[in-house]
Every structure is written in structure tokens, then in C-alpha cells.
């Protein structure tokens, strides 16, 4: 058995991120890292858990964030790499110095997706992404559209992809980010900067994931993410804004 995960090397660089609710933009300096050329496929997921894939080359979907995290650890262990994550119940810790498979941070994902482009798409959308305009009713085999200049396929369209980061802990507590848009989404959702997310146990027919690799000389902070920033983002001073549901 082999996970046969193909990775692309992404050089160091910078990317600007945007949080629409907080109306803030910030720049992230990134160290080099690796990221999957394709989303993880049904075949790769099934191989890891001892099942048979009904559509081997389609992206693995209906995969929760927690299951994606566990896939990363299993793939690391199979290849003799240091697992990146440890668990305390459903609380997950990222050991950023470990060299195994992991989910990309939001900053890594967007930087890799853009491949130098500052536009919403890295090419004509009908040529690079499966969207609602194609009229398909399910995810399509990976690699069926053109790649970006990093050689990555399907970062836009086909399926959304889980990232490591929290979506908006002040409002949505433990929700994690997914990026990129899916086969049923209209063009306005299928953009390099669009952020959505769901609870760690949620799974959807149009959400999958793509793995990354890269360890860093740091603790609880790397590639645009930090545990301290998560705590600061979760803090709310004063009453909840109108329309918010209390967390808890």
C-alpha cells in the first residue's frame, strides 16, 4: 500500500489575507512548504482506511475536518514521518516542527492557489475550475481542468478544501475554514479569497481537503497562524452584536 501523494514545492513569499467581518487585511510572510498537486482522492482515503473507492479519482468528500486531520497522521505514520497532530478528545494540537502531512494554513492555501495572481482566479474560470456553469451534479475526477502556475489542479472549483485555521472564533467558536469553491457554486463563490467553514465534525458532499508538508522552527505559530492570535480573535468585548447566537 502507498499513499502516493504528489506534492509541489512552493517557494517562500508573501500573501495578503482579508477578513470581511472584521474588515481587516494583513500580510503574511511564508517560508517554503509543500502542498498536494491534487486534492486527496477517494482512492487515497479508502486505501488508508481499508475500504474500496466507488470513484477512485474523484476528490474524497463527506470528510470532516477531524477525519482529514486523522488522515494526515495516518499518512505520516505509513511513510515513517513524524505525525503533526496530537489529540485531547476533539482538541487538536499542531506540532509545527513536525515534518509529516498536515492541512495547509489559510495563508499557505491562498498563496499556493494564487500562484502569483492578484485576481480572483488564476485563469479563465471555465478552463481551471468545475463550477455550476458546467452543470455537473457531483465532484469530477481530479486534474480535469488546467493547473495554475504552481502546477496545482482543482484549487478552485470541484470541491472546497479544509484548512487548519479557525474561521471566526468570536462568532463560530470551533468552526474551521474551507476554501476554493465547489462544483455546485456560482462564479462569485469560486475565488481565491473566499472563506467559508464548518464545525470540525461537519461533512458535506462538496468539501474535501488537500495536504501540505513543512516543519518550522517555532512553537504554536507558523505560516500565518498562531495560537495566541486565535485567542485574541475569540475575545469579544461587550454584548454580542445583533443576530449572533451565544457560543457554548
Automatic annotation (TrEMBL):
Pfam families: FGE-sulfatase. Coiled coil: none annotated. SUPFAM superfamilies: C-type lectin-like (SSF56436). GO terms for molecular function: formylglycine-generating oxidase activity. Residues 24-213 form the Sulfatase-modifying factor enzyme-like domain. This is Formylglycine-generating enzyme family protein. It comes from Agromyces albus.
